[in-house]
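FW: tagging you since you asked about this chain on Friday. Here's the raw sequence from the shared folder, copied in full. Didn't touch anything.
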Amino acid sequence: MSFVTCQISISLDGFVAGPNQSLENPIGEGGMKLHQWLFTTASWREQQGLQGGARTADSDVVDDVSRNIGAFIMGRKMFGGGDGPWSEQWKGWWGDDPPYHVPVFVLTHHARKPLAMQGGTTFNFVTDGIHSALDQARATALSQNVVIAGGASTVQQYLAAGLLDELYLHIAPVVLGAGERLLENVGEPRLEPVEVVASPAVTHIRYRIAN
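HL: got it, structure written out here
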């Protein structure tokens, strides 16, 4: 059965997005500070077809979390497009060639036909809950990993339901003060730290979850 994992950048005070999120600024005020460590890595730049970047411990972490992925699951807010029935014009934040390159299952209350994009990404819209999305993702991924991509509410639901095997936090030395917290409404999951990787830019902690 597929391993279910989540890797996400988070502030020192526990936020994965800043305050005042909007369609124009979906990650909130100051939220991009959480991801600056990523954009400077050679691995991330190579994945975007860019040159340069630093080959560091952070770059090695990017390589690690990018391997063996068979499917992603994300929430409606992460895919974007606002609330309510879908606009067929909205195809996500990522342009014609999204960075996923495998099937993506989007949790939503509003039905929509699958959306095939360039590079192997197909967005599938799931209206019957987190368990159905995971079953579909596992059927697609086979023995590869299923990644819970976000946002915070989606991660919370899978963690609270005991469906997450691993949580890999990238803790940026940033204090946002407000925004969207990650570890709320998740019950009392038993998190066991199994790996710590530190750099001047970020601290990576991998937790296994005892369900």
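FW: Helices lie at 36-39, 42-47, 57-65, 76-79, 130-141, 152-160.
HL: agreed, and The mean pLDDT is 95.
FW: great, closing this out.
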